[in-house]
Fold this protein.
Amino acid sequence: MNSALNSQKSSQKSSRSIGIIGAGRVGAVLGAAFVNAGHQVVAAVGVSTASKARAEQLLPGVALLPADQVAASADLVLLAVPDDVLAGLVHGLVETGALRAGQIVAHTSGAHGLDVLAPVTAAGARPLALHPAMTFTGTAVDLSRLAAGVSFGVTAPDDLRDLAASLVADLGGQVEWIEEERRPLYHAALAHGANHLATLVNEALDRLRDAGVQHPEQVLAPLLGAALDNSLRLGDAAITGPVSRGDAGTVAKHLRALDAVAPESVPPYLALARRTADRVIAAGRLRPMDAEPLLDVLSGSGHKGGDSGQKEGSAQKQVPVVAAQRGGRRKAKGTGGKP
């Protein structure tokens, strides 16, 4: 009997028809992953040349149709579009009568939950928010990454939780249940950690090139790999470097060098160094009294020393912004702060 039930469940999974609205990097890859899991992608929306090429590669043989036709042809409609486009798309699908009662409409936005799908619910369809916590290239490489196990930030009505968990399992992922009101914070954390990390890495690559390093990626790869691994395992205990030691003189030299070559890098360096100082002070690794010279440098008052010919640059222009952040310094001195 169990075999019969399992066979029935497998049949139900393989017979689910899926429509992909947005054959971008995320939509095309998830569509291909669903096909690999035994589902059928019946149609997709691909407007740009890149989307059409991606669909041809990842979803061969799948018809490219207008959004309303894709929605009307599927049991599960996956909306994989930019955050700011999602609400308008949902309203458009409802207004054209493309959705029907009992249909599942899921989106892949990290910032949005179920509220953006309220018109769907009013039309009798069922809403899901399924966000893969992964960066996508829009190529077959992503399928291997999905199969290795990726977390999905999921928000679902109580009676659809089992279905949501099943869909995520089909994609090889793990569910993280995110409350509706916390999705913006959840997404902010991911963007801060991943999107800003990419910016930071590229900044570091550029500055190494400025310093004459021929193969900056070879220099950074083991360093960044170890830093990420240590951070995920050890938290704030993984923080190393001059800020963690309170080396004000070294940080001042950094700021002068950046200001001379790439002044646009000074503000982000200051912001991240100040936040790093806050965290090591709060963790008890750097005493507030020992941090005073460093905090003076980060406020803008201590890094303009050195050669008398040192030119005024963007770092000085940023002093009011950084100085405004020094309220956190007083908090750290009195209470240890909150990391």
Q: What stands out?
A: The longest strand covers residues 126-132.
